[in-house]
Amino acid sequence: MGNHAWLRTESPVPNDLGLAIPGNLPMFEVIIVVGFILHILFVNLLVAGSVSAVYLEIKGIVKKDRIYDSMANRLATQVSTFKSIAVVLGIAPLLIISTIYTQFFYPSTILIGHMWLMMIPLLIIAFLSLYVYKFTWEVWRNRKGIHLIFGLLGTGILLFIPLLFITNVASMLQPELWDVSRGFWGSLFHYPTIWQRYMHFMGASFTMTGIFMYWRGGRALRHAHDPVAEASRLFGKRLAAVFTLLQLAAGPLLLLSMDARVKNAFTGGSIFHTGLLVLAILLAIALSCMLVRLTKADSRRLFMSTVVLFLIVLSLMSWIRHEVRELYLAPYVKESPRTIEKSRP
């Protein structure tokens, strides 16, 4: 029975609700992976796009270069449309995870309850700040200090919000740590995978934003010569290449921080899980090589191939994320089974 023998008498996981899961479990598992992919694409663009806009504006101020300022203005305008899309596409994964992982998700949410409830007012402040940041660009052109305050406030909150979700997810995967985990701030350094997950998320966010900037710059250049679009294109492909290479370091750090049983499954203990991880790593290395090539020479064909490969890698990583969740929770689900809808005669 191994490390989880104590579950039979001391499991911290509550019994599942008497209500059956209202549908086919494998179908919900597919929907949660697909829904998460769609959601995280826009979250990546929103978070890293906002950070990049503030960075470019500061760089423009320091270098006294209007090109950087115009790049920041365009990027802030473009990513502002992703706020609502990211929120709407996040509803389905959140509802499904609370439905099929009820006895794990609700206790982990309660453990960080105060900060979890603070998410709504924090997002309202962040969105309003970024709207002010976007719409006052010209009005406050000669008052950059005030303008940057709103950009930094909104961006800072957006950098913080993912930690709420990551902490909740990390907590639900390790119920054996619930008894010594109290509150959000303590949990940040209590669960071993939180900061590695955050690094992995941020790396993907900047890669996605870099690809987006390169694509948008290319579209603008089709109509006329535009130095701002050209600069955005150059900045975007370099951003994507650098953070994809950093992802190759963040991934192993995350794997090494996982529970020994889960880590073993992905390092030879399970042919299926090891195969998934090896495939994802090989494709990520190929993606890095393609992005490095793109920084040296522009090619529409190479770029389109890079986008396709990026989406494949993102999908694989999301699938692996689900498998990690299942491996972590398998012993607990065995001891406290979920209420599955019975087939009707």
From TrEMBL:
Keywords: Membrane, Transmembrane, Transmembrane helix
Transmembrane segments: 30-56, 84-104, 110-133, 145-166, 198-215, 239-258, 270-290, 302-320
Protein name: Cytochrome c class I
